[in-house]
Fold this protein.
Amino acid sequence: MRNLQTHLRQLRERAEKALTLPSPFGPDFDPALYLKEETGAAATGEDLSRRMQEAMLLSGFDPEERDRAGSFMQQNDAVLYEEVGRAYQGQVEIMAIEKALEKYDWLWDYWWQAVPVDADKYTAYAALYQKGGYFIRILPGAQVDRPIQSCLLQSENESSQRVHNIVIAEEGSRAEIISGCTTVPQVETGMHLGISEFYIKKGAFLSFTMVHNWAEQFHVRPRSGAILEEDATFINNYLLLKPVRSLQSNPRAVLRGKGARTRFNSIVYGQEDTVLDLGTVLELHAENTRGEAVSRAAADGRSRIMMRGKLVASSNTAQARLECKGILLSPGTEMAAIPELEVQGAPRADLTHEAAVGPISREAVEYLMARGLTEEEATSLLLQGFMKVGITGLPEILEKAVDEMTETISLGGL
Amino acid sequence: MLEVEGLTVKAGDRIILEDISLTIAPGEVHVLLGPNGSGKSTLLRAIMGMGDQEIVSGKMVYNGEDITRLSVDERARLGVGIAVQHSPALPEVRLRDLAGLLAERYKTSWRSMAQALNCDHLLDRGLNENFSGGESKRAELLQLMIQNPRLLLVDEPESGVDLENIAVVGEALNSLLKGEKIKERAKAGLIITHTGHILNYVNADRGYVLINGRLVCEGNPRDLFEVINKRGFEGCLECATCKRI
């Protein structure tokens, strides 16, 4: 990049101006409370404690790398592991983002392009105090037949991660990434700011599954953006099944190339005092683009869940659908679904939405009980189906996690 | 098999069923007739334990066990089954998954049953989601065949079903009520019917007329139907063909 220093200075200035800018959505908090001295790794990749390994498994990361094309792992601020499987050398690149920026001058052209650096104070803190994150690049035409995995692990209490990830699926490539963000059990409080930028080039296919597994007093602010070129496909799955203090995210996909397709699936389970504010923004700006955003939420305990969704179309041949459905499992919960559709000068664009929030149908539970299922079994069967219905392409490990989660839920007094 | 004794049921402040008594012996099938809103469905749901109506007095005894306060699933596991008039849509549950779960529970195999009921094309759809009336009934019959209840409660099996499907439903109900094995011949049923079509398939032993929450008469079901067809339910109150209760 020409004038890199000027570009970086401008980014820094924009971030500095946004340092006190709250997010338009979700509860506000001060990220400065969680800025600590640099925290490194407590263990090496080969010496991960059993509890750490369990936490990683819960977030979809297999420390033994069975059936994986490559892995990236970061503990606190330290990158522990960045490896591509032997069979996938020349097809995939995985490395710490700092290393990648050093290696590839052109990467700066992508830096903060899909996510604005000054979107709010969380992007600003992530920019000014960034440490680590991954660079994953699937090389042109590569057909990566095993998932690539990443794990961002926090093992220090009252600390934070401020990572910046860039994923580039080059022309005609195909890959699946499972990205887990997790804490170890002794961590109670902290913050995670994660910037993720996805660039899906012409004809490429990328499936990205993010699994969050946080602690009860954790604040999480992921900021994701995706840019899709012609005939690109981006599948984004998001799964949150553990309590967290607050999590606010509103990922945005911009379909710039004709024929681009995207689908965002999210499955969240709010427990205890969890506050979730989750949305998806799909912008369809080219011919024959297609978008779907499907979310399923179950609210238990005293959790509060806000489900947002926004579809924007500026092409007459664009089609997109938004579906937000939530189930209330306990009397102390709050939930809202806010779908938004916007057409910009394209009167034949086809945007639809469906939103529903309510309890599990008593009639449905009773109908199943009349077949001999207990109330718990009937509820679990309905909830299991509810959380997964309409969600396609969920990796098997996560399907299993959803099944296990729903088996533990009861009606909580409703 | 089933004794209902002096059952009075209310919903909110309104009495829906008053002092209902009936006995269904093993091997018998009874039918329940009555105008809309007379309380027929409430009676079946009360026997199954479904709904939020309140039992004010009376009791229900199944095979010698008082089931009045048992939950729906406890009654089902004792051998009581129900085919409701309008099955709720359960888009979350695929028929295949439910059939598999029930087959595991009741230790039976279900694939040939699904085939016989022409349910194969419904297996991977959400239960009753955009099903036709006939498809809904057949999907429910599949569940009941797996469950194989000893006392079968059936609420208007002809409702929303075309003539072709009435034959399938009728024959399936008949087979469910007869049972396949000699020891199952002691099954029993209580069927609500408006049209009487089901009587072409199921041999009913006794009929009741329920009006305004009270059983007003009982007798041969075909005789009762004849009177009702000629003179309406009001005529039923006046006739001397059947036994006035």
About this structure: The longest strand of chain B covers residues 14-24. Helices of chain B lie at 40-48, 72-78, 95-105, 111-116, 133-147, 163-178, 221-238. The first helix of chain B runs from residue 40 to 48. Chain B has one domain: 2-244.
